[in-house]
Write a structure and sequence with these properties.
Largest sheet: 8 strands, antiparallel
Strand content: 25-35%
CATH superfamily: Electron Transport, Fmn-binding Protein, Chain A
Shape: globular
Number of domains: 1
Number of helices: 4
Distance between the termini: 37 Å
Structural class: alpha+beta
Number of strands: 8
CATH class: Mainly Beta
CATH topology: Pnp Oxidase, Chain A
Radius of gyration: 14 Å
């Protein structure tokens, strides 16, 4: 992804986050046809809360989030934070929940990856330039 597209995407993310926060999570529940959740992790270095908005696919009643990092060839910070401390908070459908992150592998990873591709083919575009595997994290409600 070139710098112009990355800057445009960052602006869109910031605008989305602003609308989400001002509306208490009522606006921006879907992006590009996919549902969105707010994830609050604990920073692995800072120990402070870190908030992101991210699209997800439903995996038998649990959200699964895909770590493409918009095509950047490094795992996103939220993945690293969840690996360091898998307990987090998430809000989707207007409700806050305590969740535990489980990184998928094998058949589960492949199954959810295919669901993600069916929901948004853009994931494949992001993956094409990567040399790393794309992490997929299922959020299990505590």
């Amino acid at each position: 992804m070139d710098d112009g597209n990355r800057k445009r995407m960052r602006f869109q993310w910031k605008a989305h986050k602003l609308a989400w926060n001002l509306s208490g999570g009522r606006l921006g529940r879907r992006v590009m046809g996919m549902p969105v959740l707010e994830l609050v992790t604990i920073g692995r270095k800072s120990g402070e809360e870190r908030q992101i908005l991210i699209s997800f696919v439903d995996d038998d009643g649990s959200p699964a989030i895909v770590g493409t990092n918009a095509g950047k060839d490094a795992d996103p910070a939220w993945v690293l934070n969840l690996r360091a401390s898998p307990h987090a908070r998430a809000r989707w459908d207007g409700k806050w929940r305590r969740v535990t992150a489980v990184e998928l592998d094998g058949d589960d990873h492949e199954r959810v990856w295919n669901k993600a591709l069916a929901a948004n083919s853009g994931f494949q575009t992001y993956k094409m330039g990567l040399t790393r595997p794309v992490p997929i994290i299922r959020l299990i409600t505590d």
